[in-house]
């Protein structure tokens, strides 16, 4: 009879000096999604942001994960790699969101709510019409598209929002039957403190 094994991600010594181990699933079973996108804003094509949200009941470590911009003319282009130790808290807890913004993002003055970015990027996404989130093994986790020619496979397309009028495409979590459902509405970016 084979001996059962368990994958370990963290080993710690408790206050009693007992060696404790956490199963790998403890930090990988959240549900990180691209929850809101504004590929441009009142400040122009580089006044952009993308919001991640953990819609799962457990926290998830996204250190080493990547965000790509996509277009129909080339392979996905790396925008950023999340730093080691980046964790999205469980749904309903502080830290369940992460806000990424382009270097010309005007969020502090133009958008309501907690809008100071957690991560800035300088990648020019003005030619992009799709975005893709991958895990540290470069497996696709989620994606979103704004055009039919976008180069990230299987991305749900968002409706055409009035980006220049401070609208964004927001994932509608109430529509559980259509988990990829996005709606246009007032931009409401939320960072890790929101």
UniProtKB/TrEMBL annotation:
Pfam families: LTD. Keywords: Signal. Residues 7-148 form the LTD domain. It comes from the Bacteria. Residues 1-26 form the signal peptide. PROSITE patterns: LTD. This is LTD domain-containing protein. It comes from Stackebrandtia nassauensis (strain DSM 44728 / CIP 108903 / NRRL B-16338 / NBRC 102104 / LLR-40K-21).
């Amino acid at each position: 009879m084979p001996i059962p094994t368990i994958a370990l991600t963290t080993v710690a010594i408790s206050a009693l000096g007992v060696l404790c181990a956490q199963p790998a699933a403890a930090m990988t079973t959240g549900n990180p999604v691209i929850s809101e996108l504004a590929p441009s804003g009142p400040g122009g094509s580089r006044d952009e942001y993308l919001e991640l949200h953990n819609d799962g009941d457990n926290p998830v470590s996204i250190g080493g994960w990547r965000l790509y911009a996509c277009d129909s003319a080339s392979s996905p282009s790396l925008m950023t790699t999340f730093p080691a130790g980046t964790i999205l808290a469980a749904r309903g807890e502080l830290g369940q969101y992460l806000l990424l913004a382009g270097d010309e993002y005007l969020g502090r003055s133009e958008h309501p709510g907690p809008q100071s970015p957690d991560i800035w990027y300088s990648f020019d996404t003005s030619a992009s019409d799709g975005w893709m989130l991958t895990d540290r093994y470069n497996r696709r986790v989620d994606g979103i598209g704004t055009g039919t020619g976008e180069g990230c496979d299987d991305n749900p397309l968002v409706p055409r929002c009035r980006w220049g009028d401070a609208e964004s495409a927001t994932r509608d979590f109430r529509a559980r039957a259509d988990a990829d459902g996005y709606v246009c509405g007032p931009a409401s970016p939320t960072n890790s403190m929101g």
